[in-house]
Each structure stands twice: as C-alpha cells, then as structure tokens.
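Human: Can I borrow your eye for a moment on a structure tokenisation matter? Separate attempts, laid side by side, tell us more than any discussion would. Could you pick a protein and write out its sequence and tokenised fold? No explanation is needed for now; the record alone will do.

Assistant:
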Amino acid sequence: MMNGLIALLGSGEYLPVMDDVDRFLLQSVSRNGQRPRVVCLPTAAGREGSSSVNRWSRMGMEHFTRLNADVQAVPIIDRDSADDPQWEPVLEHADLIYFSGGNPLYLYETMEGSRAWAAAQKAWARGAVYAGCSAGAMILGRQMPNFHMVGLNSVSAFGIVPATYIIPHFDAIPGIWKPIIQAIRRRLKPDEIMIGIDEDTALVGQLGKTWTVMGTSQVHIFRKEGVTSCGAGEAVKI
C-alpha cells in the first residue's frame, strides 16, 4: 500500500514547468533539514537505447539537484537490472521514486514481480512519494489500453490507483486515436472511471483522500455517463 503522495503526470517530467509540483512533493518528505533522497528510474525507456536512457537519467539528476535534493539515477532498464540486489537498499531508503516516460507495457513487465518493485513498495509503505510521468502514470491503473491492437483490448496494470485507465498527454492525443479513446470509455462499467491527464499537468494525492490538480491544464474524469474536467488547484475525488 502506498501511504505517501502519488503524482500522476501527463507530461513534463524534469522540466521547469513541473518545478512547483516537484517542490511540493519534496516538501512532503522533508526530513529535519536533510535533503530528500530522490531516485530517478528511466526504466520505461529501456528499449530505446543508451542515448535515451542516459538523457532521462541526466535530466532527472540535473532537475532534482537544482531543487536541492540528494538524487541518484538508477539504471534499471530490463528485468536483469530490476532483479539486481544492489538496487534494493537504494530504493528502500528513497523518499521519492520517479518513473519517467516511455513504453508503459515494457515498464510494467519489467517491474512486475521484480526485486526493485518489492523494494520500492517498502519505501512507499513508510510514506515515500511515487511520481510517474506518462508510462509511469499509466501502470498504476487497473488496465492499460493495448494501442498495438488499436485499443481493442487491454493489458493488466498494477491497479494501485482506483481507475480502470489512466491516459496521459490527453489534450495532445492525435485525432486518429480519439475514436479509440471513446471506445475505451464506452467499455467502462458504471462503477469504473478513466482519468485523462493533460500535458504539463499532474494529479497529486493519496489513496483514500481527495486529490488536487497541479500544473498548466486539466484532468478529466470519465465515467460511462459523462465527464468532469478540473483545472489547477481544483480538488478531484477518485
């Protein structure tokens, strides 16, 4: 169970547009004047090659160093590295664990059942923050649309956030994909929701409590019967 804050970002990881969000997350885990320990995980980009992995790692390091955190980028990029015991204490003692974007299915398959995920869960259970952008947000829903199958079916996700689907980059979805999003929405059961998070926007909260929209745009809560859109500073119940 995640007892700390959860931040679901539509886009904008490690960019100045997310400074206010990340300062808020860091403040939530401040430790008597000690710098918060941040771990950046480029796992979702593991199939994109070393240049992409290194870019995300460098961006995370520079961003959180600028925000006065004690930051480490951990090269968990495949199942072997996710099961490498050297990363367990790093994750267990983190105050904020941040997943940048990439391939959500690859991220889920790499982390599910891994030693790294188990170690991260220990951190979250004592109140560490989970931050996930794009793919990192999608894996916390119950399911993820299988866009390789044109959205006709879904694949399992961790089911930590009580939403059937979490869709990032929502305001930037190309027109060709919008019928797929509508089809996914029509499949929702009466007690299910889909969360759409616009770019440069975050939904921040704790399980069982009210969440808040932060950033530059909106979060959209879809139910079978309608949609509610909320802007920065507005409260959201999920």
